Amino acid sequence: MLKINNLHVKLEEEDKRILNGLTLDIPAGQVHAIMGPNGSGKSTLSYVLSGRDGYIVTEGGATLQGQDLLQMDPEQRAAAGLFLAFQYPIEIPGVGNMTFLRTAVNAQRKARGEDEMSSGEFLKAVRQKAKELQIDADMLKRPVNVGFSGGEKKRNEILQMAMLEPRMCIMDETDSGLDVDAMRLVADGVNALRAPDRSFLVITHYQRLLNHIQPDVVHILSNGRIVKSGGPELALQVEDEGYGDLLSEAG
Question: What span, in angstroms and rounded, lies between the C-alpha atoms of 180 and 188?
């Protein structure tokens, strides 16, 4: 699904390297988690994959379902099936959730050469998805994220994900600022979207999220590269012992 090979990235405005030969392979249907200390390059990875400005790839590459991801504009990456859930979802005053969702869905369908959804088809689909994800229908009537709590913003992104039906979902510290109940609701939404043809990359500081979203593989990122990979028990080891011993082992 997603293949990253020897990826080297630096900041555009200063000669500072962030990623230093990161290699990662996420097969279809799997959930991979990335953990690591502050400054290790976790969020930079999500930004580079989604096409955010300000970063220069100096070596290596990334493909999504065999397509060269880094040669695409951000909207092309989205149409190809990439979705990024932000750490801090932005508010869009004056734009209703329903309008935003339908515009996004039809823009992607058009880019893929598919017929756009009619108002009736969209309304039926979004109501069904909201019901499955236990999202209050009143959220659909409000402007995008305006006045939403942290948990509501994250759940709104889960609804966006459900409607857009991406193939590769990147969750950038989606547990940031959430209480236990909100985190569980978000995790339940992610678990409801797990499928054989959809993969997830969950970027997190804390093992607690991985109690609810059981990953297939956990990776430890340090100094811009993956230094250790393992099963869910690796996240428990980090929770108990911190990163010190793991990073010492990796040299």
Answer: 12
Q: What is the DSSP string of 161-225?
A: HHHH--SEEEEESTTTT--HHHHHHHHHHHHHH-BTTBEEEEE-S-HHHHTTS--SEEEEEETTE
Work out how many domains the chain is built from and give that number. Answer: 1
Tell me the per-residue pLDDT of 234-247, one tens digit each, with 9 for 90 and over.
Answer: 888 887 777 777 77
76: DSSP letter? H
- Say which CATH number the domain at 171 has: 3.40.50.300
Q: What is the extent of the structural domain holding 134? A: 2-250
Measured CA to CA, the distance from residue 242 to residue 239 in angstroms comes to 6
**DSSP string for residues in 100-160:** HHHHHHHHHHHHTTPPPPPHHHHHHHHHHHHHHTT--GGGGGSEETTT--HHHHHHHHHHH
The pair of structure tokens assigned to 102 is 């339908």
User: Structure pTM?
Assistant: 0.87
pLDDT tens profile 128-184: 888 887 777 788 888 888 888 777 888 888 888 888 889 999 988 777 767 777 778
